[in-house]
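Action item from last meeting closed. Structure (407 res):
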């Protein structure tokens, strides 16, 4: 057994640690401590944290009641060995839990998905569409359905995929369908298309259990799912000091966060931004509808500081992404960790509320300008008749926001 050094957890920590959050033991092993709902105690469990294809992944290892500290360390060691051999521990565990495929002639959902993509990807002329297909398969669909016999996939399997726990921009877990209803419904539609392909090629004789005609009896319509999430935000009076601290930081993560704040953008919009979306001479960033929450193209007027960031990133360009990471785009976790290090308690998404509050309290700009800057749809009749995007007026708003942040 290899000798382990620099352990950060004491032998008593699994039973007595009260520091809520993730407590590192080194080597990717963490003791996760949560306060119980009644507030009278704590629950403790083991988590193995690792990076796979540029993304951080957290793998639950069970309760401290079932696994001692030494046993958890041994399991973490084995999992590190798997990662070093190019095996994703979570995907490996999922495949072992899936229904066994004994017949070598059996077609798995993963194989059917690959066949469907090969047949149809030429129709997807926009690179964003192709990337969204690949991302949704990789992140949400294949880890659960991929190893299963496509002929035997049931409604229960599809529901499991659509109800899986997912983390938001700030690390909180939610049910997939309830928290990301549009994305979950796109995944449902893609599962339905793949199962339809399998039926057409006689890999499957059962009905298409991903059809909305069936699942509407289980899930609320995506258009009816209501979720109110108030993300902790920084008081706008403190924003200039935050920006001063942020601008002292170097690297892609710092520049991505600064770009996000200057434009009041969503995390996914910034991390997925590619150079072909930028019109630097015109000082405009055009986000295609495929990447927007509201599924409408969004033009962002770029302030002079935002353009300066682009020039910095252009000088060190690595790939198609403006803010590159180890494997493609920067990881969203990096932004959260940076925000937390500068001001614990606030969130990345909360910056949109900070800008909105500043615009309402400190400026004379019309409310619809800040709403348009946040890419919010204008409700009611006004939204139906207003076909413009107020770009010139929004440019004045965002330059004013930029100047305020630089005070």
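Sequence:
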């Amino acid at each position: 057994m290899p000798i382990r050094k620099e352990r950060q957890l004491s032998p008593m920590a699994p039973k007595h640690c009260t520091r809520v959050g993730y407590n590192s033991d080194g080597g990717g092993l963490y003791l996760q401590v949560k306060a119980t709902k009644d507030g009278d105690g704590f629950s403790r469990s083991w988590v193995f944290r690792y990076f796979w294809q540029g993304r951080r992944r957290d793998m639950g290892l069970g309760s401290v009641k079932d696994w001692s500290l030494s046993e958890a360390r041994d399991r973490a060691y084995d999992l590190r060995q798997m990662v070093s051999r190019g095996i994703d521990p979570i995907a490996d565990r999922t495949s072992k839990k899936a229904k066994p495929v004994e017949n070598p002639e059996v077609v798995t959902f993963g194989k059917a998905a690959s066949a469907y993509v090969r047949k149809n990807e030429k129709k997807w002329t926009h690179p964003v569409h192709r990337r969204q297909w690949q991302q949704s398969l990789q992140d949400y669909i294949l880890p659960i359905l991929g190893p299963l016999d496509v002929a035997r996939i049931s409604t229960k399997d599809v529901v499991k995929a659509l109800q899986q726990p997912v983390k938001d921009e700030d690390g909180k877990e939610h049910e997939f369908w309830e928290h990301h209803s549009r994305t979950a419904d796109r995944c449902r539609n893609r599962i339905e298309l793949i199962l339809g392909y399998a039926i057409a090629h006689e890999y499957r004789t059962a009905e298409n259990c991903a059809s909305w005609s069936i699942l509407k009896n289980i899930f609320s319509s995506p258009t009816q799912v209501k979720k109110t999430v108030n993300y902790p935000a920084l008081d706008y009076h403190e924003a200039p000091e935050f920006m001063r601290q942020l601008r002292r930081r170097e690297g892609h993560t710092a520049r991505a966060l600064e770009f996000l704040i200057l434009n009041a953008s969503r995390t996914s919009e910034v991390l997925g931004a590619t150079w072909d979306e930028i019109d630097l001479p015109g000082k405009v960033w055009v986000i295609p509808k495929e990447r927007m929450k509201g599924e409408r193209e969004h033009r962002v007027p770029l302030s002079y500081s935002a353009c300066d960031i682009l020039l910095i990133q252009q000088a060190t360009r690595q790939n198609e992404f403006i803010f590159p990471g180890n494997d493609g785009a920067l990881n969203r976790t990096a932004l959260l960790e940076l925000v937390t290090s500068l001001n614990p308690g606030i969130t990345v998404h909360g910056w949109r509320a900070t800008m909105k509050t500043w615009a309402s309290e400190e400026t004379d700009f019309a409310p619809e300008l800040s709403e348009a800057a946040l890419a919010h749809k204008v409700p009611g009749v006004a939204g139906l008749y207003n076909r413009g995007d107020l770009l010139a007026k929004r440019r004045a708003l965002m330059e004013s926001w930029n100047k305020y942040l630089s005070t």
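Note appended to the action item: The two ends are 57 Å apart (CA to CA).
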